[in-house]
Amino acid sequence: MSTLTAGTPAATVTAGTRTSWAAVLTLARFETRLLLLRAPVLVAFAVYLGWTVWRTRTSWDGFPALQDADRATQGAPLLVGLAVLLCANQAVLRSRRYDTDRHLAVLVVQPWRRTAAHLLSVAAVALLTGVCVAGQFTWEALKPGAVGQGSPGELLVGPLCVLLFGAAGVLLARLVPSAFAAPLLIVLCLFFALLAPMASDEDSAARWLSPVVEESGPHPLPSELLGRPAAWHALYLAGLALSVALTAVLLSGAGRLRSLRAACAGAVLLTLVGAVAQSQGVPRETTEARTRYSVTPEKEQRCAERDATTYCAFPEWGARTDDWDRVLDGVRSLAGGAAQDRPLVVRQRVEARYGLAGDAAIDPATRPGEITVGTSWGGNRAPEFAVAVAGVLVAGTEAKAGGMCDGRMVTVMWLALADRPDPMADLRRVRLDDSDAGSAVVLSRTNPLSMTAAQTEVVRELLLRPKDGTAAKVRAHWAELTAPKVTTDRVARLLGLDEPEARDECL
Amino acid sequence: MTPTVSASGLSLRYGGTRALDDVSLRLSAGVTGLLGPNGAGKTTLLRVLATAVPADRGAFTVLGHDPGTSRGRQEVRRHLGYLPQTPGFHPDFTPFEFVDYVAILKELTDRAARHREVRRVLDEAGLDGVRGKRIRKLSGGMRQRVALAAALVGDPAFLVLDEPTVGLDPEQRMRFRELIARAGEGRTVLLSTHQTEDVAMLCHRVVVLAGGTVRFDGTPAELTARAAGRVWSSAERDPGAKAGWRTGLGTFRNVGDPPVGADLLEPTLEDGYLLTLDGLDGVDTEVAA
């Protein structure tokens, strides 16, 4: 049983500390702590952080283009946003639910200031999301293989979505004081998210009204070619979040405050400006630049000479030259004849005319000694590039290599893979069907090559043998091995193998 | 003595019902009891004085601040502690969190000072042992103490308590009386209650409200004195009594106009209260045996 204690002197509370806005900030801290400790928010953050860490560890095979990495921060915060929508809504409805309204209504901090505190608590969670987004992007940017540059506008989308969703939860509580409204809104949001991509045209300006507009293709584009109105979209989201938040405050009893009404009108104006500006489509200059980069990349590139090879890359990809050079050197060191010293040009190419999501093939280069390299790197792209180098060393041009249907394919594949750390694994990776037996298409940034079952058998046997012995035979028989129409059987014999048993028919 | 609260001509209608009709009051330091039957307008009067609802007519000030203006209302609220009838709680909060939350809403922004104040009122309410326990796990009496602690936080000059002892067992009521008595030291407390014993034990002054109007405003002794010579004992219930009931001794205690030669008894505050309400429309003072 508790006992009553003698009264102690009341704490002195000076009038100076009793300022309304200081109380709002104090209340916001109180509500932020409660919001961050709510189970849905904790779970959402745990899933968000777990997924982000898991994904970022291996994203882009360690070679991110930061102009793509910034967009990759946008989707996952939506989960946090939905949790904040639910919990902020419940926090606002708490007094009504537990019937404390009658008591709290006569306290000094007015309802509209309490609403402002709820909104500030949402802003704190949005800020925390911003820290997570910054962390994720910094991680990508610090990877040794990172190139390009991110956009602040794209990076702001995640935190702004959390802010918008949270503000929507607060406003909803003021409009529909029912505990069922927020879950219903979340279901509607999920339904919309499911249907919107199906219903909207990829080029439709209306899709930019969605909080997150994901566009991704297999090959990064230079920043200049993205054509995404990232800054306008961020402005649109910020304006929308602010409009929703200020409307919630106005509906909480601050309707008489002229400054607040003016701020709300300003926020709506910002939203409209952002909405209109973001819906203008891809700018003409961007479209023209996309064509220039696609058709005449040499005009946009900087070139660097390394021994007999010239590397020409778009400005943001200059740092990749070392990676390309390592692979090319490995292939060239195994080649024979004049191929070891043959002048080569590695040219980065991109097909940007179909936008970010485009996956159009690039025509093979027809100039002798020119090798195409894409904008992606790491993973399958390195052996794919090695195949392209070997193809040019053997056939002379990319175009000729693409049409190859004879025993030279064995030399190409062995040259490409023999110097790789795990040749057999790379053999499987560059084949479309991930196999190391039978006939298959070989990946390429331009026209794909193909291997017959017999060639695959020979290459597999060669890769299992010591590299140096085969390299000596390749150099010794280079002319015959790279002669057009040489048969797979002949190549096998020249390289010290029995004739393959598998079929030797091109795809 | 300068009154803390000064109200004149307060009137309020809810639809066709006149909840308050020309109520005038002057409250100063100490505990003032507000008695009245159900529907008398007690809670309405407390809500008006607590600035929860505005009066249709009339005016009042608290410590000289007029709640009729926005600024004045804020000032009144800065000096107000309010314990509503059947207060709500956030069940997932601890008493400390709940009172801390209320303290913030009273604009106590300095964290260290506020937490000292919260601990002080929790200690004063005898809740120091359960300050970290979830409110949903507390008994009704404990919850009522949390509500009182929330009303006391910030050391308000004017404390409005709406039936704080309802639903409490006798021991809890006794403890609550101690709390209220201590709260009345140096501040103005307006205590609405049905319990005439509470008023008799706690209040230096009592106001009886019925039908939205003030029927009595004086000391408990004055209210009791209204029944002097009007309470008597008899073997059977006296048909001429306004109210009468059988006591534990087997005799009847009658209140009203006694017959000649009646065995007069010492009146209580409740007798005075019953006689004050006698004859009012809609007020049943008949107490059956």
Automatic annotation (TrEMBL), chain A:
Signal peptide segment: none
Source organism superkingdom: Bacteria
Regions annotated as coiled coil: none
TM ranges: 35-54, 74-93, 119-139, 155-173, 180-199, 230-252, 259-277
Keywords for the protein's UniProt record, in alphabetical order: Membrane, Transmembrane, Transmembrane helix
Key word Membrane present: yes
Descriptive protein name: ABC transporter
TrEMBL record, chain B:
Domain ABC transporter, residue spans: 5-236
SUPFAM superfamilies named in the record: P-loop containing nucleoside triphosphate hydrolases (SSF52540)
Name of one Pfam family that matches: ABC_tran
GO MF entries: ATP binding; ATP hydrolysis activity
UniProt keyword annotations, A-Z: ATP-binding, Nucleotide-binding, Transport
Membrane-spanning intervals of the chain: none
Similarity remark: Belongs to the ABC transporter superfamily.
Name of the protein: ABC transporter ATP-binding protein
UniProt organism field: Streptomyces caelestis
